[in-house]
Amino acid sequence: MTWLIESVQTAQVDPEAVFRLYADPSTWVSWGHNATRARSDGPLAEGGLVYVRANYGRDYPCRIRRFEPGRALELEVRPPFFVVINIYEVEPAGSGARVRHALEFSGPLSVPMRRVGIPRIYRRQLAEEVARVIALAVKVQS
User: Fold this and answer.
1) Which end of the chain is more exposed for a tag (fewer CB within 10 A), N or C?
2) For the chain, what is the mean pLDDT?
3) DSSP string of 69-125?
4) CA 6, CA 43: separation in Å to the nearest integer?
5) Which helix or strand (DSSP H or E) is residue 53 part of?
6) Residue 141 gets which letter from DSSP?
7) Cβ(125)–Cβ(102) under 8 Å?
8) What is the DSSP letter of 24?
9) What SS3 class is residue 7?
10) Which helix (H) or strand (E) holds 136?
11) What is the percent of the chain with per-residue pLDDT over 70, rounded to a whole number?
12) What is the enclosing helix (H) or strand (E) of 51?
């Protein structure tokens, strides 16, 4: 079973300023809801890896499934018994940007995670994460 949660916000921010944060793993700890450290094995590109230390005290290799410069980054991480797809997208919207962060869960543990209310927790964290990335992008574009 696969399920998805997301947060979408529109703001007066330069889409490129948002994407620069996505493309620089060293910034992920400042806006990501669960990252305490992140480093890539080279320039971000499809098929590449980013190693992210989560709040759980372990570095997870995250495979870059999609990388569209200026537009989208999608990562796949495979903790034991489930798969998480992290989706980060930005697009122009009027004089600002539409920012979307989503998490897609699948695998054997995804069903019990959904039943115990994990989507509600992550939905709030994603909303906070999107707000943080927008605030940082506004700050760096000023």
Assistant:
1) C
2) 92
3) TTTEEEEEE--TT-EEEEEEEEEEETTEEEEEEEEEEESTTHHHHHHTTHHHHHHHH
4) 27
5) strand 49-54
6) H
7) no
8) -
9) strand
10) helix 118-141
11) 97
12) strand 49-54
**CA–CA separation, 15 vs 89, rounded Å?**
10
33-85 residue pLDDT tens: 889 999 998 899 999 999 999 887 789 999 999 999 999 999 999 988 889 99
The token duo for 78 is 């495979």
pLDDT in tens, 105-140: 998 877 767 677 777 777 899 999 999 999 999 998
Torsion of CA 117, 65, 91, 18, to 10 degrees: 80
**Which residue matches tokens 């793993």?**
25
Close Cβ partners of 24 (under 8 Å, ≥ 6 residues apart): none
* Six token digits for residue 75: 């990562």
Write the CATH number of the domain with boundaries 3-33+64-141. Answer: 3.30.530.20
Is there a contact between 107 and 81 (Cβ–Cβ < 8 Å)?
yes
